[in-house]
Amino acid sequence: MTPDQLKQLLDSVKQGAVPVEEAVERLRDLPFQDVGCAQVDHHRELRQGMPEVIFGEGKKDEQIIDIMTAMAQNGSNVLVTRIDEDKAQRIQRTFVGALYHANARCLTLEQRPPKAKGKGTILVVSAGTSDLPVAAEVLVTARFLGNETDHIYDVGVAGIHRLLARREELASASVIIVVAGMEGALPSVVGGLVDKPVIAVPTSIGYGAAFGGIAALLGMLNSCAAGITVVNIDNGFGAACAASLINRV
C-alpha cells in the first residue's frame, strides 16, 4: 500500500464512503502477509518510500507467482529482478500484463503508472557494451521507482574523448550512476568532472585478473575523486534505489 492509497482510504472513511469495517479488512494484511514461502512486506513503501521488490534468482516459479499475487491483490506494482527469460515466460502465463526486460533480466507488472517522485534526471553512464545488462537493471529499477532517466553508453576510459563530448548531459543530471568493469576507472573520471552525487557500480566483466569484478570494486573504493559512493558488484538495483532516494531530496 502506498501513502497515497492509505490517504485515499482514510479520506473515504472520513467522508462515510467506506465503512470502518471495510477499511479494517483492507488494512488487515499490514504490515506483512504470510504466503507460506515468504512474508510479503506490504508496509515497506509506507516506511521507506519504496515497495518490496522480488529477487528472482533461486526462487521457483510458483514461489514468485505466490508473492506477486499477494502484492498485486494489494494494489502494488511489482518488480522482479534477476530472472531469466524462460522463467519469466512461464510467470507471464499467470500475469499476462507482466513485461519482461531481457537486457535487464527484470520482470515488471504495472497496475498503475509509476508516480513521478524524482526531482531531476538519474543519468546512467556505462563504460562498455558488456556492462549494459547491469546498466539496464539500473534503468528499469529507477523508472519503476518514479524517476526520469537517461543513459550514456560505451564511454569507457579507453576512449575518454567519447565521455568528454557528453559534458552537457553530465552537468544536467541530478544523480549519476557509473557502471564499469575491467579496472573500474570510469567513476573516478566522472567524479572529477561534475558536482553531482556519483554512485559507482562495479561489474563482473573483465579478464582473469579482474577476479569477477573485485578489481573494479577495489579500484572504485580507492577512487581519488572525492564523494564517490560504491555499491556491490553487479548491483544495479541497489544503485538505482540509492539514486532514487537522493533524487527526491
Commentary on this structure:
- The strands form three sheets. A five-stranded parallel sheet has the order 8-7-9-10-11.
- The chain is globular.
- Helix 4 packs across helix 5 and helix 6 packs parallel to helix 11.
- The protein has eleven helices and eleven strands.
- The chain has 249 residues and is α/β, with parallel strands linked by helices.
Q: Tally of extended strands?
A: 11
Beta-strand content estimate: 15-25%
Question: What is the makeup of the main sheet?
Answer: 5 strands, parallel
Span from first to last CA? 22 Å
Stretches with pLDDT under 50, minimum 5 residues: none
Approximate helicity band: 25-40%
Shape, per Cα inertia axes: globular
Q: H/E element string?
A: HHEEHEHEHEEEHEHHEHEHEH
Radius of gyration: 20 Å
Number of helices: 11
What does the oligomeric state look like here? single chain
Structural class: alpha/beta
Average predicted local confidence, pLDDT:
90
Give the strand order of the largest sheet, numbering strands 1, 2, ... along the chain: 8-7-9-10-11
